Amino acid sequence: MERYASILGPVDSAFYYVETPETPMNIGALTIYEGKVDFEAFVNLIQARLHLAPRYFQRIMQAPFRLGQPTWVTDPTFYIYNHVKRVVLAEPASEAQLRAKVGELLSRTLDRNKPLWEIYFIEGLEASTAVFFKVHHCMVDGLAAVDLFTMLMELDSRIPVLEDKQEFSAPNLPDPATLTWDSLQRDVLHRFNMLDKLSKDVTRVAFNLFDTNQRLKMLIGVAHLLNSTLSPIRKLPINGANSGKQQMIWGAFSLDEVHDLRRKTGASVNDVMLTVMTAGVERYSRRRHMNEQAFMRILVPFNVRAEEEIGNYGNRISVLPIDVPFGVADPLERLRAATRYSKAMKDSSLSLTMDMILTLPSLLPSLVQPSIWGVAPVAFSILAHTWCTNVAAPPAPVYLLGHQLKQVYGYFPLNPTMGVAGVIVSYNGQITLSLVVDEAIIPDPQTLENDLREAYAELRRAAGLPDAIPPAPAKEEKPAPETVVSTNGVPPEAKPKPVASTPGVDGDKAPTAASAPANGVPSESKPVPVISDSAAQPTVASAEAETPAAQAESDLESETEATSAVEAAPEAVGAVEKPDATMSGAAPQAAKSPNGSVPQPVAHKLFSDEWAKAFREVINHSDEYRRAGANWTAGSLIFTMNAAPMHDFPQAASVYLNLHRGECRDAYAIDSRAASQQGDFIIAGDYAAWMEVLSGRTSPLVMLTTGRLMLRKGSLLKLLPHTRSATELVNCARRVPWS
To answer: Looking at the predicted structure, is the pLDDT value of residue 308 above 50?
Structure first.
């Protein structure tokens, strides 16, 4: 059994079993890059980094007669050109040609005799290159998966020096008898694991029931759910019989404008986009003789993985319905109604109950599970009209082989009878709303796309914003280096040549999916908040940013607390405080005690154990950090000061911080040699670099991207969504007196 990978979790099995030719269960994104990217260099890049994501070498096998759960097994016949494919459109290809090709690629199911992913490299566009990522939903395992998209991206336009291609080898596939015996053994252990999971879920639910405040929120959520489902929903013109022929439409909007809209009503970014989606669908439906349905119900995926479950049970996805009303004359009032409903459902913790329900079929014999899961799409079609999820993308520009990523359009599988599924993506000052549509149900997708744009414009006008709707201006970047586009095809013998290697951002063996305190914004620029990742993660090789079940945060609500902090205090965004007096060794002025004396705080040596504990106290008394770091679940952070004898650091000094959801659970000095075993993220630098950060002259991410600070462990791209929490962490450090 040891030579096999894990079996599919309960939700992953559902994704695997419910797929049909009419409803492919694939997720991914269409990404567009500036300039002409070289195909062979792109393949070399993937080959050099794919070993960081072992799942991409594995295919699914199941014992004969389904005598056991589907199992991930390394494919001994893996060949990179079976998965990375070249598409050349007639130049200069128009956007319409690109959409047609994307629709064709969307409509195909993946070959189950290979690892379930494909990447299409699309050439022929004028002055740009498109890459279409496609991954089966059962393959994506939240925080346990490594995001292929993240591994391929860089934070600047320098062309990376690649590691040598990793040698690939795998044992032969197991014979049917061996696989059957192995599956029967694994099946027993799997059921015990599921029972253990359910017992933990029951404990969490019971804990919520005994908590007075949470119990009230649960009851309110139940009341909303019952009130909305006492009578069946009526189908809309976006519902019908799927054909499997799909298209993708999208709209791009300014993220700053969306924040202006949300601030007027106390909504989230995702509430705004759900409202735009509903208003657009209402426009489209009324044109096609909509019935008297009073609202559109959108199923929103929730991430319910607890911190200790990372890597277990596969996907931990639950869903909750969000009702957005039709027939509301005032667009802002529609937004307020959507916000009230989504907040009640998110606060209710009902997503945990749904997760328990989705786990129950895994306790049944594997032989009958496909039949059970076959009923699930029917149930969802009775409960709701459509799906919508969201994706976290970096708030700053990222690059592929020196070429800037210009646009990201995510996509998500369609449920049977649902002709529309939506994905919200924010990236580098823009937010996109992409819809996958089935042509048999939506024969005129361009009309629906225009309706979405009109709905957004109507909401803007209601909010008093100017009539023009320009997208956020792209940041000026250096021109991408010229590359030579390979014009020949890809013969089977064409194998990328290995190149020499230097460590880079992507060189981490196990990047986690959340973030660490790294301020990604120079002091003079405004940070771009991002929506946090969904459990469904319809992104490229989706690595999802997840939240614990106790919070039950929607992945459509879970834009990071960095966003909330930015909006709560816009005047503080990117601002740099004046250096504290403590930076020069003097103690800051303290509040007077009752007898009138002013106690002087004790100054400790920088990066000492005493300084670390004082740092922890400041963090835990900072409301700003508590808000900004509320979504930090990635683990511990270690700051390392390199040896600096001239500044009283004869050897390297390190400080360990156990950070979790806006709290510092522990902090202490740690031996720098042991840091790599204990820290999830390690940031190291010399004395001068730390002085620049602690004095407020620059931000940690600027120092990281320029090489002044080094990320010795962890993935830099995973730190980007938490720019505000990094700023507040540094502000806390500056308030700790040191000598």
So the answer is: no
In the predicted structure, residue 345 carries a pLDDT above the cut 90: no
Instruction: Evaluate whether 109 touches 413 at the Cβ level (below 8 Å).
Output: no
Rg (CA), the chain: 26
What three-state secondary structure class fits 567? helix
CB within 8 Å of 188: residues ≥ 6 apart: none
| Pick from 651, 648, 685, 695: nearest CA to 670 | 651
Rounded Cα–Cα distance for residues 222 and 230 (Å): 12
* Separation of alpha carbons 28 and 42, rounded Å: 18
The C-alpha atoms of residue 428 and residue 125 are separated, in whole angstroms, by: 22
- Asked whether 294 and 325 are in contact (CB, 8 A), the reply is yes
pLDDT for 704:
72
Distance between CA atoms of residues 661 and 633, nearest Å: 6
- The winner for highest mean pLDDT among 269-278, 587-596, 692-701 is 269-278
Cα 632 to the chain's mean position, in Å? 13
3-state SS, residue 462 = helix
Yes or no: domain 570-734 corresponds to CATH 2.70.40.10: no
> Is-contact 72 521, C-beta < 8 A?
no
Q: Which long-range contacts (CB under 8 A, 24 or more apart) does 285-293 make?
A: 285/236, 285/237, 285/238, 287/447, 288/237, 289/237, 290/236, 290/237, 290/326, 291/234, 291/235, 291/236, 292/234, 293/233, 293/234, 293/235, 293/236, 293/326
Longest dimension (CA), the chain: 85
Please give the span between the terminal C-alpha atoms of the chain, in angstroms, as a whole number. Answer: 57
Q: What is the pLDDT of residues 105-121, one digit of tens each?
A: 999 999 999 999 999 99
What was the pLDDT predicted at 303? 61
Structural domain boundaries in the chain: 570-734
Tell me if 76 sits within 8 A of 83, measured CB to CB: no
Q: Name residues whose C-beta falls within 8 Å of residue 438's C-beta, 6 or more positions apart in sequence.
A: 22, 240, 242, 243, 244, 245, 246, 414, 419, 420
pTM value surpassing 0.70:
no
E strand or H helix at 143: none
Question: For residues 381 and 7, is the Cβ–Cβ distance under 8 A?
Answer: no
Residues 371, 361: Cα–Cα separation, whole Å: 10
Count of Cβ atoms closer than 10 Å to residue 704 Cβ: 22
Q: How far apart are CA 402 and CA 155, in angstroms?
A: 9
Three-state SS at 357: helix
What is the torsion angle, in degrees rounded to the nearest 10, for the CA atoms of residue 712, residue 713, residue 719 and residue 725?
-80
**pLDDT tens digits, one per residue of 207-222:** 767 777 776 776 776 6
- Run of H or E residues at 5: none
Residue 408, beta-bridge partner list: 31
pLDDT value for 523? 36
**Residues 67-79 pLDDT 10s:** 878 888 999 999 9
Beta bridge partners of 74: 58
- What's the rounded mean pLDDT across residues 387-415? 90
Angle at the Cα of 75 from the Cα atoms of 161 and 188, rounded to 5 degrees: 125
**CA–CA distance, 468 with 418 (Å, rounded to integer):** 33
Average pLDDT score over residue span 458-480? 63
Q: Residue 331: is its pLDDT beyond 60?
A: yes
Tokens of 734: 């500056």
Least confident of 116-120, 270-274, 582-586: 582-586
